[in-house]
Amino acid sequence: MSEYSKKIFRDNLQGLDAYTRHKLFMRDYVNFYGNNGQPSNVETKTEIDILKENHKEYCIAELKYYKEGRIALRWRIEKEVITGKGQFICASTKCSNTSELKSWEVNFAYMEDGEKKNALVKIRLCPKCSNKLNYSKQHSEIKTEKEKKRESTSERSKKEREGNSEDIESQKLESVDNNPDDLSGRGKIEDFDEFFTGLFV
């Protein structure tokens, strides 16, 4: 090989990492010695690609201010993805429990490239941290249960009142039906005429 060829070969590979050089050599090998089939355009997923995809599937939570309803979420870093934090280990920053993990789907609002984005992400928490995550919701559920009980009791009492008023009205109608004045056959118009004549005379 001449010095010129060595220089060009060296310049082409300078700045490439080992994996990229390997792919380049393999492509050149296949092109030189021939490929019986058509070249495949399907790219296989590498471990790095899988890590990049999975780091946004689960998130990590800071539950320090859960009583105030402030829960901080963040994406997992590479080290946490590799160790399984947030997927196989409790996603709370202060907890490392691995048993009885529960999966939750939460809305995660974040900024990326100056643009507000929302994502529905999974978070895996132990029972203690799950209670912290749902603290405000549990309190609102308790309040709504109390309100439902109040509404049901007020509806019952309202129905009872309506039932009593209906009974009274039906009793009045029965008494009107039994009234001997109505048996005379006079109508309401005649009663009004008699009333008005009594006023003007």
Q: What descriptors fit this protein?
A:
201 residues, alpha+beta, two-stranded antiparallel ribbon, two-stranded antiparallel sheet, 52% helix
Can you tell me about this structure?
- With 201 residues, the chain is of the alpha+beta class.
- It has 3 domains: 3-42; 48-133, no CATH class; 143-192.
- 52% of the residues lie in helices and 15% in strands.
- It is built from 7 helices and 4 strands, in the order αααββαββααα.
- It has helices at residues 3-13, 18-33, 47-54, 78-83, 127-133, 135-178, 188-200, and strands spanning 59-62, 72-75, 102-112, 115-125.
- The strands form 2 sheets. A two-stranded antiparallel ribbon has the order 1-2. The protein has a two-stranded antiparallel ribbon with strand order 3-4.
- The longest helix is centred in the last third of the chain and has 44 residues, at 135-178.
- The radius of gyration is 40 Å and the shape is elongated.
- The relative contact order is 0.07.
- InterPro entries: Folate-sensitive_fs_Fra10Ac1.
- Residues 140-175 have a biased composition (Basic and acidic residues).
- This is 15278_t:CDS:1.
- Residues 140-188 are annotated as: Disordered.
- It comes from Funneliformis mosseae (Endomycorrhizal fungus).
